[in-house]
Every structure is written in C-alpha cells, then in structure tokens.
Amino acid sequence: MPASAPRIHTVLFRQTPAALVERWRPLSVPPAFAERYRMRSWFHFLPICLLLALSGPAAAVPTEPLVLGAEDDWYPYTAYKDGRIQGMSADIVRAAFRAADTPVQLNPYPYSRCMKLALKGLIAGCFNTSPNPHILADYRLPRHPLFRAEIQLWARRDEARPVDAEQALSGRKVAVTLGYEYGDGFDRRHDLVRIPVRKDYYGFLMLQRGRVDYALAYRNTARQLFSEHPELEGQFQPVATVHRPELYLSFSRRHPQAEHLLERFDLGMQRILASGEYQKILDGWSQAADATP
C-alpha cells in the first residue's frame, strides 16, 4: 500500500465533525436555476406518467401467446399427428381466436393430464370437455360449445344386439378412458364395473380379448381407430347410444389470464358463427368422416 494512504485517513479523522460537514457540503445552487431545472424535469416526466396511465389496463392483456392444452390422441377431433396438432376441434379453436385477434399456443397432452394442468392454473384451458357437475364447479365454460357428438356402447360383433343401456350395464365390465366424462346418467352409476384405460384403443383391445363386456367410445373416434388399426376392423358394433354431449374448451379458474381468454374465445366464436366459417369447418370434417371406411 502507498505510504501516503495512512496519512489521508489520519488527516480526515483528526478534523472536527463541523469541519468535515463544511468540507463535504454540496455547492449551493442559485434559486432561478433550481426552478428551471425543476420545471424541465417535470415536463420530461409528464409524458411517462401519461403513457403509464393510458397503458395500465392494456398491460394486463398478454402479448405472448397463452398456452391451451389440446388432447393428443382423439382424432378426428383433436390429436397430435405428423408433428402438429390436428382435428376438427383444433381447427375451431384456432379459427375462433384468430377471428378475435388473439394469439394462442396449443400444446398436446393426454386428456387427464391436460385437465389437471388447467385445474392447477398451469395452462389457461383444455379441450375437449363434456360438462358434468364437477366440471362446472372446477372450470369456466364459454357460452359456445365446440361441437356435439355421440358416445356409443360397443360390443363384440358376434355378441352384438340392441340393448337398453340402463338395464344392460348392471353388473357388467365396461372399458372407459381415463378422465373422460360420459354424462351424468353413466358417470353416477355404481352398479357396474369401470375398467379404466389410457386410450380408446386399449379399451377395444380389452373388448376384443373378452376382458370386458362393453367399451364406451365416441362414434367418429371409434371409426377412425378401426381405419387406422386393421386388427380392430369389422369386429365391433355399437349397441346403444349412451350420451350425445356438447364438447367445450374448458378454462382454468386459477390461471390469471383465463377469464380474458374466455371472453376472447366467445367473441371469436360469435364471429365465425356469423361469417359461416364455423359451418365450413364442420362440413369439411363431416365429409372426411363419411369417406372413412
């Protein structure tokens, strides 16, 4: 350390407090200059205040796309195929938010996980959901459903005959997909044995092998499965319609932007219904379904 350094400390500490104050007192500023400086500072700060005031409400609106969960294996409604999310309901969701000038990002998940993420507020919403009292309590639903579809009770073709689902299911084993809702009439029953599977495909395999008496599946998703898996083709037949629900995009009650996104979705749905775009999407997928063997 330089020899002069200790001397500086010694000089400072030997001075009286009054002398130190006088030594380090800031230079005085003329009053006129101070007033001009104060006014200039205010005029520089005023635009910032106005900008903040005007942008306050908008600051709560997200600029980055918010994440919605899309079921990853429920074609032709929604599935992750060929590296992207495809399906009728995915097309409807994208069209609605596009019509409302609201960017969203669709991420694929298994349905049960997708709904749990939305329940916890980790994503803004999830589709496709058939409402029941539990769904209505745990999630926000928009005014407009995505579509309506038939849930059918499937049996092996060699045992298939039309049945009354109310009577036929008592005491029987029925394959159901994890997390799916099948309507109050079925979901509240305690007189049957539910065999949970991760995918509709596994339910039909169990039915094929005689491990369950029936499998529940939506008509169009079952037809798609049979066309994609030749080992299932021609082996099953629907014997009853269990429910014909409306399917929804369910929004989280815990995600901070979910309510805003729900409002934008309803606005977009209103616009595509009025413009005819919604019906064009339904017609396009209906033709594709009719072409499926």
> Number of helical segments?
12
Please report the total strand number as a whole number: 14
Text of the CATH class of the largest domain: Alpha Beta
User: Structural class, from helix and strand content?
Assistant: alpha/beta
Short characterization:
The chain has 293 residues and is α/β, with parallel strands linked by helices.
List the helices and strands and how they pair.
Elements (H helix, E strand, L loop, with lengths): L3 H11 L2 H8 L6 H29 L6 E6 L1 E2 L3 E4 L2 E3 L1 H12 L4 E6 L1 H10 L4 E5 L3 H6 E2 L6 E2 L2 E6 L8 H4 L4 E5 L6 H4 L5 E5 L2 H9 L5 E5 H10 L7 E8 L2 E7 L5 H18 L1 H15 L2
Parallel strand pairs: 1-5, 1-6, 10-11, 10-12
Antiparallel strand pairs: 2-3, 3-4, 6-14, 7-14, 8-14, 9-12, 9-13
Helix pairs in contact: 4-11, 4-12
Description of the structure:
There is one protein chain. The chain is of the alpha/beta class and 293 residues long. It folds into 2 domains: 66-147 and 246-291, D-Maltodextrin-Binding Protein, domain 2, CATH 3.40.190.10; 151-243, Periplasmic binding protein-like II (D-Maltodextrin-Binding Protein, domain 2, 3-Layer(aba) Sandwich), CATH 3.40.190.10. It is built from 12 helices and 14 strands. The strands form 3 sheets. Strands 1, 5, 6, 7, 8 and 14 form a 6-stranded mixed sheet that branches. The protein has a 5-stranded mixed sheet with strand order 11-10-12-9-13. Strand 3 and strand 4 form a beta hairpin. The protein is globular and about 55 Å long.
